[in-house]
Specification:
The chain is α/β, with parallel strands linked by helices and 256 residues long. It contains seven helices and twelve strands. It binds zinc ion (2 copies). The site of one zinc ion (ZN) has 5 residues, from loops.
Length: 256
């Protein structure tokens, strides 16, 4: 079982439940040594109460998390972070956020403030998403790519062009010594029939086949939106079984 989880949300994003400290207490119970909070980043001009922290509440979030980090320091290592989307015109803001927290993970849910990729995604959109993730890595904003296959929620099939987009992301991950996440929350959306068989939309087997062939480092991310998720360590085994046959390069420790 993995000793760390860097993908944890809080009620502040509008679609998670539970108290901050319940996440921490459950992580301790489950034997995690490191728990990272990665709340959905708020952006000036993009208040979306169901999706992310209000922009003006970011400071209070960081402050509270650093208090909890101190409070629990003898029991578990808390890391304070955010899950962000990369937008070229927000690069300065992202650099500023980076300077105010321990780490950032890129979870590219959206093309822009108006279009989320799970609400429909063309091959052009996947190419665009790949460029956003690659830019985030090359700008050294992050070394952790959350659910690179999230876009499959908005697509019917995984095409040749998508394979190439994933391969480009893998190259950027490797040259930046970054990791790709097997997102354990994705399994709750269930499986669909694809030309290559029944698969989860994400974590998507055909995507991880490329990741395995590219030799990228991979980790599990619980993407917890409910404290109870951190008690269910069997999710790792279920995902591992799903990825059977792939030579994935799991790592034992990760310091973000
Ligand atoms: Zn979320
Ligand atoms: Zn996400």
């Amino acid at each position: 079982m993995q000793s760390f989880n860097y993908h944890t949300h809080t009620v502040r994003c509008g679609h998670a439940v539970g108290k901050d400290e319940e996440y921490i207490q459950n992580a301790i119970k489950s034997g995690f040594q490191v728990l990272g909070f990665s709340e959905h980043l708020g952006y000036d001009g993009w208040d979306d109460p169901q999706e992310r922290i209000p922009f003006l509440e970011m400071d209070a979030y960081f402050q509270r998390m650093y208090e909890l980090k101190e409070k629990y320091k003898d029991q578990i290592e808390i890391r304070v972070g955010v899950e962000f989307e990369y937008f070229e015109d927000k690069k300065e803001y992202l650099k500023d956020v980076q300077s105010r927290c321990d780490y950032m993970i890129v979870g590219q849910h959206a093309k822009n403030f108006d279009h989320y990729y799970d609400h429909g995604c063309s091959d052009d959109d996947v190419d665009y998403m790949a460029e956003q993730i690659i830019a985030a890595l090359d700008a050294k904003l992050t070394t952790y790519v959350a659910h690179v296959d999230y876009f499959m929620l908005g697509k019917e099939d995984f095409t040749k062009r998508n394979e190439e987009a994933i391969a480009r992301i893998c190259d950027a991950v490797n040259r930046n010594d970054a990791v790709l996440e097997i997102n354990l929350k994705g399994m709750k959306y269930g499986k669909k029939v694809y030309p290559t068989g029944m698969q989860y939309m994400y974590p998507h087997y055909d995507v991880f086949k490329i990741i395995a062939n590219k030799g990228c480092k991979v980790v599990f991310g619980y993407d917890a939106h409910n404290p109870s998720v951190l008690l269910d360590r069997s999710l790792e085994q279920i995902a591992q079984k799903e990825m059977q046959g792939l030579q994935l390069h799991f790592i034992d420790t990760l310091k973000l």
